Amino acid sequence: MALDSLDPHELWAQCLLNIERRVRAQSFANWFRPTQVAQFDSNVLVIQVPSIVSADWLEKHYLELIREVVLEETELSPDISFTIDGAPATAVIPGVVPPNPNQEVEQPAIEGSSSNKNYPQTTEQSQIKNSSPEENEPFTSLNSGYTFDSFIIGEGNRFAHAAALAVAKSPGKTQFNPLFIFGGVGLGKTHLLQAIGNYARVNNLARRVAYVPSEKFMSDFIESLKNRNTADFQRLYRNADILLIDDIQFLFLRGEHTQTEFFHTFNALHQNGKQIVMTCDSPPEKLEGLEERLLSRFQWGLVTPIEPPDLETRIAILHQKAEINGIPLPNDVAAFLGSYISSNVRELEGALIHLMAFCSVHNTELTVEAAKHIARERGPDPTTELSIEAIQKFVANHFDLTLENLISKTRKQEVATARQIAMFLAKRLTPHPLKMIGLHFGNRDHSTVVHAIQTVEKKCKKDPSFGKMIEEFTEAIKQKFVPSF
Ligand code: ADP
Ligand code: MG
Fold it and tell me: Does the pTM exceed 0.85?
C-alpha cells in the first residue's frame, strides 16, 4: 500500500479494524477504541492513549499484535511508542524489519540495536517517563497528569489543596511560604506538589520550577562536594523561583552537611521572595535530627496535614480514575473497592487497575464478584496491615503504655521489652527495612533494631510462654487487619 496516499488517521483506523477482528470485543473496547494516532510514517508510529495504564497494558500484551497488524496493513515496521497528551508514556520500541525469505541469517533490525537488546522491554525499561519538554533540565521533570483538576477534594485534603492552589497562583507572595504538607504514604502529597509546579508553569507564573525528591537534593550536593563544584550546585538551587522538595524526611537521615546546605538554600530563596514547598511523612516537630533553626523556619509559613480520604472521597477518586481510563465503573463496584481499601489512594488505584486488567483478560464485566476476586487475590489492604505505627499501637495498648512511652528513650525494663517486641513484630509483619523501623522508633539506628530482634528470638527459645505470647500477638495483628469480605 502506498503510505503517502493515506493520512495517519486513516491508516490507524484501518489497523484498528484489523485488530478488532482479532481480539475480544471487551478488550478492544477497553484498550483500542480509546486510542488515536499522533504520528504514523515509515519510521515511527506514535499511539495516543488516554492513560499510563493503557500504555502499559498495550505495550505488555498487544505490542506483537500491533506490530503484526501494522506490517500487514502497511508493509512497514516503524518504531512504536505511546503518548499521553503529547508526552511520552513509554520508551520507543524499535520496529523489526520483516524477515527476508532469501536471507539465511537474521539481521538486526535497527542499526546499533539488535532488536533483542531492546525488545521485549522489561517493565522497568518501559516505565513511564515523565513529561518534560526540557529533557536536559537538571531537575526531575513533572508528571503532567498531576494537576489540580485531577485531584479530588475531600475532608482530609481540603485545606492542603486550598493552600497548594493559593501558592501555585501567587508563588512567593502568600503567607504560605514555606508551605509544608505532611501525611502518610499514598495520600496525594506528590500529586499536590507537582500540581503546584504544573500550574505555575502552564500559567507562566514562574520561570524556573525545581521539583526535587529530597534524596536528589542530597545526592546532587554530595556529588558537587566530590567534584568540587558546590558553587554550581548552589547557583542551580538558589536560582529557582519555586522549589518543590518531596519527602523531606530523608534529608535528615544523613550527615549534617546536607542539612546545613539546605538551610542556606532555604534562606537564599526565602529572602528573595521565592516559593518553597515541602512534603514530609510527619509534622516538622516530629522530625528527629532536624536542627532547631530549620524547624523554626518550617513553621514560618503554613504547616498542613493531609489525611486519608473518607469513603465518599475514595469512591469519587475511583470513578475519576476509571473515567481517565475510559472505563465506566458501576457504583456498587466503586463502593466495594472503596470500603475494601481504606487508607491509601495509591493502593486504591492499584486495585482498580488490577480489576480492569482482570476483566479485560477474562472478557467479563466489572462486577462486585470480580472485585471480590481481586480483593481476595491481593489480600488485605497492605497499608493497614503493614504499618509500623499500627503494630506500635497494638503493642503499646497491650502493655498499657502510650505510644510516646513505647518510643521514648526510657530504659525501664517493661518499656524496653515492649519496645523490643514491637520492633520484632514490625520486622516480621512489614516489608520495611531495619533502618526504616529504627526511624519509626525514635530514630534508633539499625543495630539497635537487630539487637531487639535477637533478644526477642532468644527469649522465645528460652521461655515457651513468652514465645506463645509472641505468636498470639502475631496472629492477633494479622487478624485485626484482614478485611472481612
Ligand atoms: P504520596 O506522595 O502522598 O505518597 P501520591 O501523590 O504519590 O502520594 O499519590 C498516590 C496516587 O494517588 C497518585 O496516583 C495520585 O494521583 C493519587 N491520588 C492521591 N490523592 C488523590 C486525590 N485526592 N485525587 C486524585 N488522585 C489522588
Ligand atoms: Mg510522594
Answer: no
